[in-house]
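Render this sequence as a predicted structure.
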Amino acid sequence: MSKRKTLFDYMTPAQKHAMSYVNSKGELVRLPTLHSTCMELTGVARPGKTARDRAKKMRRLING
């Protein structure tokens, strides 16, 4: 079974880089997609949301 996609999957590479960091163990840690965090780091309220909604709409149109 495939893993469900999140907003992080729809972000641009620059947004993904801004919304994550590497911790002391060398693991990539994602920051929460809170409005204040997103606005501060990317300048967009919910990065990836428009792309996700567009993809959902296309799936609905294709699948009937």
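Summary. The longest strand covers residues 20-22. Helices lie at 7-10, 13-18, 35-42, 49-63.
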